[in-house]
Amino acid sequence: MKFGIPRGLYYEPLLTEWKVFLEDLGHSVEISPPTNKLILDEGVKEGVNEACISLKLSIGHAMYLKDRVDCIFAPRLMNMDKYKRITLCPKFRGLPDLFRVFIPNVLSLNAYLGSFERRLSFYSKVGRELRVGFLRVLRAYRRARLASKKVKELQRDGFLPDEARAWVLGGSEPSFTLKRKDEALPIIAVVGYPYIIYDDYVSHSLLKKLVNMGFNVVTPEMMDDKEIEEALRYLWKPLFWSQSNKVVGAAFKLLRKPEIDGMIHVSSFSCGTDAWVGSLIELEAKKFEKPLMRIVVDEHTAEAGLVTRLEAFTDLVRWRKGRAVI
Amino acid sequence: MRVYLGIDIGSVSTKLVAMSDSYEVLSAVYLRTAGRPIAALLEGLRMVEKDIGNAEVCGVGTTGSARFLASVVSGADLVKNEITAHAVAAIHELPDVKTVFEIGGQDSKIIIIREGVVVDFAMNTICAAGTGSFLDHQAQRLGIEIERFGEYALKSKNPVRIAGRCTVFAESDMIHKQQMGYSIEDIIAGLCEALVRNYLANVAKGKDLKPPYVFQGGVAANLGIRKAFEKEIGFPVYVPKYFHVMGALGMAILVKRYVEEEGIKTSFRGFRIVEDRFTSKSFECSHCPNGCEVVVIYRGSEPLACWGDRCGRWQDKFGRGSVVGELKEVA
To answer: Per residue in A147-187, pLDDT tens?
Structure first.
């Protein structure tokens, strides 16, 4: 059978993990291509008006795959944290049901992915659906985890998710990395959900733009999980959502690092969880007197507003470091 | 005499400043962009030339949303974003300024400055409530010249409460108040207060406001808004002499510093370009599903620059001249 995995809200290293798992069980898998205008248009047309851009994109990506594959693989992400009470934005739960409105064949199972046992139970359920025995599932799971761990490590080294996946799955070493090359350059931390900051279409290649403007860039994916988790103790209680905790934890940790010269929080218009995340980061940035800018992305394709803000912010960062603005 | 030219082309208005070596403003031009930035720029250059005569232009800097376009047409030495340009001009006018309110035709910004350095800023995001275009529209609807808007507001004794959150609501609220019989003066003053409240609650949200305050941009001409600001924040608001062309002034200052520090010779094309024919054409690139709308700027039939492609395929190659032939065909 040929499976399709839509991007949008699903991101790395989950994409790699699922692809390797299904392929090991003898199926072929197509991940939808990076977001482009057609996918966005399709998602906006079919999507709910009030939803965030990433949810609309998920629909666009699924529509792209619809006639190319036999079945859409869309796990219902319930939890990815070791604490079971920490969930994900509810949009992730509704996603498979939204797909079913347009697409008859969707394989969706509840996915609790926060521990080895829970992951194994999820993949066993998938195996049962596909009528494969437990031992085959176990082998596929090991390979899938190995690949996804490699992708994660590469992301920590500053490689972009798509390129990291291609490399792990047998491609060549990517030429672009966010890893610091010149220690003297100012460092800007870019925090936000991975499905936003690494989607070049949505974020207008913000990360690459910053590198081209002469900055070092740090993202939550380039940090140690432990470091992020520890930083959550600065909150009087963690948030309800895994990804939000990751963003807030990363931001709180980075704001405490003296070498970070500024922070950009990239958020999606109408993102509910970011109402919390944004305010928490804002208050913390104020406490540590770090320059912070919030960029809200949406469907618009003109990037003039983004470029103006980015230029002004980078001027500010350099200016504060005592360099003339010109 | 050495002269530095600052050009600020916004969505609503085009501003040019010619500044002497001793930071003296020799010419300040303000005109409507009217959707035709190139025409406005050339017209502005014509007016500046009249003011400065034969003085030698030693540097040109551009800013505003059409800064790249203006830079290509004029042959600018420096291109900068509006925030930096406005901040530089405000610091030049009032060295110990701490807060800058800037309200223009279609955007509004706040810039927080400490010890002559920008430390924070914000721009309005998706909503143009309370900017110049909205005031223009309301003035027109009430049959009052926009220049006299402030005068009316100052006459008011009891400003009425108007919802300023959104222009659509503000307008219906105003109409309702008119029909109830409130005086025009009170409604206009109420509108000014609503806009200031909206600005402080949205653009300036969470910002550390401290005096001295500078208020600049086209809307600073409006005495009603000025007064509403002072009433709301409880401090005097300083409006610089060249409040309406501060972005352009900032660019003139920046380009002067730039030219002097780098010791470069300006690439200004000269005032004779006002006789040339500059055109722009766009086409949809068909190389990928993104279908970017690429804009090409021509002088006569010679392509000068292009942009609008997300992947940079046209822009990158343009520098190397390899697509100029292709772009000529588009023309």
So the answer is: 999 999 999 999 999 999 999 999 899 988 898 778 889 99
The nearest CA of chain A is from the CA of B302 a distance in Å of: 25
Q: Residue B207's beta-bridge partner residues?
A: none
d(CA B18, CA B119) in angstroms, rounded, equals 28
Q: Do A311 and B290 touch (CB under 8 A)?
A: no
* Cβ atoms of B121 and B83 closer than 8 Å: yes
Query: Do B78 and B184 lie in a common domain?
Result: no
Number of domains in chain B: 3
Residues B116 and B101 grouped into a single domain = yes
**A187-320 CATH, one of 3.10.350.10, 3.40.50.920, 1.10.10.10, 3.40.50.11900:** 3.40.50.11900
Q: What CATH number was assigned to the domain covering residues A2-168?
A: 3.40.50.11890
Collect all residues of chain B within an 8 Å Cβ-Cβ radius of residue A296. Answer: 125
In tens, the pLDDT along A191-200 reads 999 999 999 9
Instruction: Select from B69, B78, B80, B81 the residue whose CB has the most chain A CBs within 10 Å, as the one to mutate to test that interface.
Output: B81
Q: Which secondary-structure segment (H or E) carries A123? A: helix A116-129
ipTM: 0.86
Looking at the fold, whether B315 and B253 belong to one and the same domain comes out as: no
The DSSP annotation for B264-282 comes to PPP----GGGGGS-EEEEE
Q: What does the pLDDT average to over B184-196? A: 90
Residue B149's domain comprises 95-239
Give one word for A77, left, alpha or beta, with left for phi > 0 and alpha for psi -120 to 50: beta
Residues B104 and B222 in one domain: yes
Give just the sign of the alpha carbon dihedral B135, B137, B141, B147: positive
Report domain extents, chain A: 2-168, 187-320
* CB-defined contacts A:B, below 8 A: 67
Q: Is the Cβ pair B290, A282 closer than 8 Å?
A: no
Q: Domain with B182 in it: what CATH number?
A: 3.30.420.40
Question: With contact defined as beta carbons under 8 Å apart, do A170 and A230 qualify?
Answer: no
Please choose, from the candidates B55, B81, B85, B49, the residue with its C-alpha nearest in 3D space to the C-alpha of residue B68: B81
B115 in A contact zone (CB under 8 Å): no
B window 235-254, beta carbon within 8 A of A: 254
